Amino acid sequence: GTAELDTLKLELKGAQVCDTATLRKLVEAQAMINANIERTIARERGSFKIEKAANTSQLHKLHRLLSDLAHWGSSAGQAL
After folding, report:
1. Which of the 8 DSSP states describes residue 46?
2. Phi–psi pair at 26, nearest 5 degrees
3. What are 20-30's pLDDT values in tens digits?
4. Can you say how many angstroms the Cα of residue 70 is from the centroid of all Cα atoms in its chain?
5. In this model, does residue 67 exceed pLDDT 80?
6. How far apart, in whole angstroms, are the C-alpha atoms of residue 51 and residue 44?
7. pTM score, whole prediction
């Protein structure tokens, strides 16, 4: 009767405490995972900016070289 009901209530309360502790640990673990993801994204974003800057610089150099070649080619053609 009542003793069994009291026992069940205690077991239920214990299970709820365990579930709450487990959920708290899961939330903390998820927060750590999210922080790691944010750090990785920031690092990748920085690498991308550096790579983009290098590619842009190379593109400008190539453009100048092609412009110079076109200019020299037209100068050579005029000299003939």
Report:
1. H
2. -65, -40
3. 889 999 999 99
4. 43
5. yes
6. 10
7. 0.53
